[in-house]
Amino acid sequence: MLEARAQGNDAIVMVHGDQPGQDLANLDTLLSRGVGGVVMVRSARTTPEEEDTLREKILKSRIPVVVMDRKMDIPNVKSVLLDNREGARMAVRYLLEQGHTRIGCITGPLEDVVCRERLLGYQDALEEAAIAYDESLICQGDYRPEDGVKYLPYLLGKSVTGIFCFNDMIALGVYTGCRAYHLRIPADLSVIGYDGIPFCETLDVPLSTVEQPVEEMGRAAATLLKQMMYQPQCAQDRLFLPSLQIRASTASPADPSRR
Question: Does residue 34 share a domain with residue 77?
Answer without folding.
Answer: yes
